[in-house]
Design goal:
374 residues; mainly beta; 43% strand
Length: 374
């Protein structure tokens, strides 16, 4: 065979192995062609197209998906913002759409969507820099539960009041949860001292010695639309109507509800209960439904926070598996591998009036997620 006339670069194969590259002239434009049963010549440009174009298309499609995902996510961390630490435990939004952010070791952050203001032990009377709960009362006071410094009340005018075991009736300085009833009374769930109720003057303590409270480590508190107090503990759940106590047995929960770390009450009064080592319980007009891996396809357990968007979708902060969305039938998981989420250990999810999901992570900073892009 003669190779002449048209010059190109070719890969020469012998028994399916590359033997050499070379420049040759050929009279035939139809490649590849076979000279023997084991000897072939492929133009490099044709070979590369055959092998690499599908790969190139894959990366182009993947890149466009990543680009679309990135338009749905905003990330704030210590590298690109004034955020003092990357651990975010709780996020509360006030009536002016300001975000009050409780960090893991960096104090409290006020974020108005353009600037961050930091309150910590060095520049304010905040008693501790690790914050587990922030609740805002009807007078716009911020009640801040710290993990070791008791409770701080912040008026927003640089005025602070601190309540701890040394100067008040608070039974423990580790405050895990805060709730405010319709009368303005503050209820503090402590990690080791039960519950403390404060009416701005007097304190009432509920623990396992003087009440049916099932455990003195209180992890979640909320009031339903009838002003009943729902109590999550590291043990069993409880409910207190101001007079009578109800526990797993009297609430007829089967299996028993244990390890409650999150509550959410929707506008219709439906109660969502998130379990640290289980799924989600839903109470609707005295009917209880459970969502588990076995009966709903829930992909992961471990619920630390719950919220609902304007379309009625349930959003779950999952510690270890990312952010979960449930529309009543289908689960969607957002994690580090398939989205802009920076940490699969999610502590908190709070949804603002524009349906933005504000996400607090263990070490990935603060994120905002909007399914319709920003």
């Amino acid at each position: 065979m003669r190779l002449w006339r048209r010059q190109a670069i070719y890969k020469i194969y012998y028994k399916n192995e590359i033997t050499s590259y070379g420049k040759y002239r050929t009279r035939d434009d139809n490649f590849p062609f076979e000279t023997t049963s084991s000897f072939q010549i492929f133009p490099v440009n044709i070979y590369m197209k055959k092998k690499f174009i599908p790969i190139l298309l894959f990366f182009l499609v993947a890149g466009s998906l990543v680009s679309a995902q990135n338009k749905m996510w905003k990330v704030y961390n210590t590298s690109n913002s004034d955020l003092p630490v990357n651990g975010i435990h709780t996020i509360t939004i006030d009536d002016n759409n300001n975000k009050w952010i409780g960090t893991w070791g960096g104090g409290m952050v006020l974020f108005d969507d353009s600037a961050m203001t930091i309150y910590d032990t060095s520049n304010s009377k905040l008693p501790h820099n690790t914050i587990y709960s922030i609740v805002i009362d009807k007078d716009d006071n911020k009640w801040v539960g710290t993990f070791g410094g008791g409770v701080a009340k912040f008026t927003g005018d640089k005025e602070w009041s601190v309540y701890d075991t040394s100067n008040s009736g608070l039974p423990h300085d580790w405050i895990y949860a805060i709730a405010i009833d319709r009368f303005g009374n503050k209820w503090f769930g402590t990690w080791g001292g039960g519950i403390a109720m404060f009416d701005d003057e007097n304190w009432i303590i509920y623990n396992t010695s003087n009440s049916p409270l099932p455990n003195i480590k209180v992890t979640a508190l909320t009031f339903d639309l009838e002003n009943n107090l729902w109590i999550g503990t590291s043990g069993d759940i409880a409910m207190f109507d101001g007079t009578e106590w109800f526990t797993n047995t009297s609430l007829n929960f089967s299996p028993p509800v244990e390890g409650v770390y999150a509550f959410h009450i929707d506008i219709k009064g439906k109660i969502y209960i998130g379990l640290k080592f289980g799924g989600v319980y839903i109470i609707d007009e005295n009917k209880c439904t459970s969502l588990t891996k076995e009966n709903s396809g829930m992909p992961y357990y471990g619920v630390y926070s719950l919220d609902k968007d304007s379309d009625g979708n349930l959003w779950i902060a999952n510690f270890g598996s990312g952010l979960l969305k449930y529309d009543g039938n289908t689960w969607i998981v957002y994690n580090e591998s398939n989205s802009g989420l920076t940490d699969d250990n999610v502590f908190s999810v709070t949804i603002d009036k524009n349906d933005n999901k504000w996400i607090g992570t263990y070490s990935g900073g603060l994120l905002i997620f909007n399914e319709n892009e920003f």
